[in-house]
Design goal:
With 659 residues, the protein is an alpha/beta fold. The protein is built from 22 helices and 16 strands.
């Protein structure tokens, strides 16, 4: 392992931007306004005591003679005091009279020296200090400006302290929030390749990264350099984050993890500052791995439809990442690993050599991979003897690692709720139904509606047994779950990565079985086949527009390819993803889709009519037991499982009649 790089000696630390720009003219203006506001606040809500009313000396003498003076005090020639009864003020004609009780007057130099005896005769109190003395100027200044100065001083102290500690500006907004994991041997947070299963191909791609982090000189001695960045691409839940942590755990190097959305804040410039701080921390701890999750949150193509105009903070953050990845050498021992499920929206500058040099596809696991994942998640779960992880893996096509982990957890919770000592196979089956379809609903259904659902699901089941090449029926139920009133489960015999036309036609016939059974038995149609029709129409349209399975249109692609994981890559028609064919071709597409669906429906009706007694027997059994497994279905219908795909030929392709 290479030694950690040190900061250069004698290099001065730049003054933090937040402190350097503190005293701009605008800041001084704000400071002055704050001081003025504080002074106005104290003047209104903490006013000084009002001064006594000044009166003529003659009025004062008159009130003494009237025995209305309660208390006086004198300092030099100034006399202040209070009256026993309020005295009206001399007001202008027409104005309402005002009264006063506290007074102040000035004794003339020629006044009567017998004033003290006169006051004593009237029992007035003579004091030696003023009755009301205004606050000193320094106290007024302290009360007016002291709190504001204290607040501003504390503000400056906090900003300087945060700038020194965070190296990221005011209050540490620009500081990296990456979480550092302890990947040393024996650490609680260490993850290795032993904790990763089902994604062996992606794991093998990263072995070289681990080897480089352990022994960089092995590669640098011949002039080679390791990748600066590795981009993990795959659907959500496939284990991209876990795989990145496993690389760090195998190499036993620091692992800095941060979500891309954590870089961007409301304050412009914070994201770029956090990027700089993150890379600085990684360089100081090198060799190390930086992991950025959901890179597409800040890595979208600049200037494209996904980047809103004027949103400079996101662009600044992206530009800073590009600069940092371009600015450090792979010899420093810092490798950036990022994860995304939308590689199609990333900026091209991120994907060029020298930045994210290598892209690793993390695909959903196959049957063997799913079984390996289940074994990773079940060592601490007591399994009953009837649990068959291989069978569970076979019935969960399309599920990724996160789904399988959730499946194990739900099965354990169901077993605990049933007061079982171990998790049984039926717990896994019920947990799978709950996860894929939702919890069971206890609907109050009429006998007629319940019977119609039984025939609907029976139609799917019978065709799953009859149509060559269909996936075997594993389970059928008429118990409402989620939005479905009944479900037919079909388990693929083998992992399929390519679909031929005969298999797709078999799928279409099976999907049409529910509607065909209802119309065969009841002679009418209901809304219960809505989901079936959506699925069949989408499949038929894909056959025509994307896979070239129409003789009339030929081998031509007439629709943009869907995004690898999330549907259309161009839902708004940007970049040529909109309609790319004429109106005449669109009409032919509609006719071909309608023809395929009508032929599939006709084949489903023919097969169900021929095996009507098996359909009736299966519907009766469903009404009695609600749920049937594969062996029960075979015993009731006395039909063998569908044979291997020998080819399903529908009616000759003819133009479909317009409904």
């Amino acid at each position: 392992m290479t030694p950690s790089p040190r900061a250069p000696v004698g290099r001065s630390t730049p003054e933090p931007a937040g402190v350097r720009r503190m005293w701009k003219p605008s800041a001084l203006l704000i400071f002055a306004l704050v001081l003025f506001g504080n002074y106005a606040f104290f003047s209104i809500f903490v006013p000084d005591r009002p001064r006594p009313t000044e009166i003529p000396y003659t009025v004062f003498k008159q009130q003494i003679e009237a025995a209305n003076v309660a208390e006086v005090t004198s300092r030099a020639d100034v006399i202040q005091g209070t009256f026993k009864q309020a005295v009206p003020l001399q007001s202008s004609p027409g104005e309402p009279g005002l009264t006063m009780k506290e007074f102040s007057t000035v004794r003339p130099a020629f006044a009567d020296p017998g004033l003290e005896a006169l006051l004593a005769a009237q029992n007035a109190v003579i004091n030696a200090h003023p009755l009301d003395e205004p606050r000193s100027w320094w106290l007024n200044l302290l009360l007016s400006f002291g709190p504001t100065l204290l607040l501003i001083g504390g503000f400056i102290w906090l900003s300087n302290r945060a700038a020194r500690q965070a190296r990221g500006g005011l209050f540490g907004f620009g500081r990296s929030r990456a979480k550092r994991y302890n990947t040393a041997a024996g650490g609680d947070e260490r993850v290795t390749f032993a904790d990763v299963a089902g994604i062996d191909e992606a794991e093998n791609e990263l072995v070289e990264i681990v080897d480089f982090l352990k022994d960089p000189s092995k590669y640098t001695r011949l002039g080679g350099v390791a990748p600066k960045g590795v981009l993990l691409v795959g659907p959500p839940g496939t284990g991209k984050t876990l795989l990145a942590r496993a690389v760090a755990g195998e190499a036993e190097v620091p692992f800095f993890s941060m979500g891309a959305s954590e870089f961007v804040e409301m304050i412009v410039g914070v994201g770029a500052s956090r990027v700089r701080d993150l890379f600085k921390e990684a360089r100081e701890a090198a060799p190390a791995i930086i992991f950025i999750d959901e890179l597409d949150a800040i890595g979208r193509a600049r200037g494209g439809p996904g980047m809103f105009a004027g949103h400079s903070e996101q662009e600044q953050t992206l530009n800073q990442i590009l600069t940092e990845m371009d600015g450090f050498s792979s010899r420093e021992g810092v490798i950036v690993v990022a994860a995304t499920n939308r590689p199609d929206v990333l900026d091209k500058a991120l994907l060029r050599p020298g930045r994210f040099d290598r892209q690793v596809m993390v695909q959903p696991p196959d049957r063997v991979g799913r079984e390996a994942i289940l074994r990773v998640h079940t060592p601490n779960v007591p399994l009953a003897a009837d649990v068959d992880l291989q069978a569970i893996a076979a019935t969960t096509p399309g599920l990724v690692g996160a789904d399988l982990r959730n499946l194990v957890n739900e099965a354990a919770l169901l077993a605990a709720r049933r007061d079982e000592e171990a998790v049984h196979q039926r717990d896994f089956v019920d947990a799978l139904e709950k996860l894929t379809l939702g919890p069971a609903r206890h609907l109050l259904m009429s006998p007629e509606e319940r019977q119609r659902v039984a025939y609907h699901e029976g139609g799917h089941t019978i065709l799953g047994l009859l149509v060559p090449g269909s996936d075997p029926v594993n389970r059928v139920t008429i118990m409402p779950r989620g939005q479905a009133l009944g479900v037919t489960y079909q388990r693929p015999q083998d992992e399929r990565h390519n679909y031929d036309k005969a298999y797709l036609q078999a799928r279409l016939v099976g999907v049409m079985g529910g509607r065909a059974a209802e119309e065969l038995v009841y002679g009418d149609r209901t809304s219960g086949a809505e989901s079936d029709l959506e699925q069949a129409t989408s499949l038929a349209r894909h056959m025509v527009t994307r896979w070239g399975m129409s003789e009339k249109l030929g081998p031509v692609s007439l629709a943009p390819r869907d995004s690898v994981f999330l549907g259309s890559t161009d839902p708004f028609g940007f970049g040529g993803g909109g309609k790319q064919h004429s109106e005449e071709t669109a009409q032919v597409i509609d006719d071909e889709v309608r023809r395929i669906l009508q032929e599939s429906y006709a084949e489903a009706t023919r097969l169900l009519t021929k095996h009507r007694h098996q359909l009736d027997a299966l519907a009766s059994a469903l009404l009695e037991k609600e749920t049937l497994d594969e062996q029960q279905i075979l015993d009731i219908t006395e039909l063998p499982s569908a044979p291997k795909l020998a080819g399903l030929r529908l009616a000759p392709e003819t133009p479909a009649a317009v409904a």
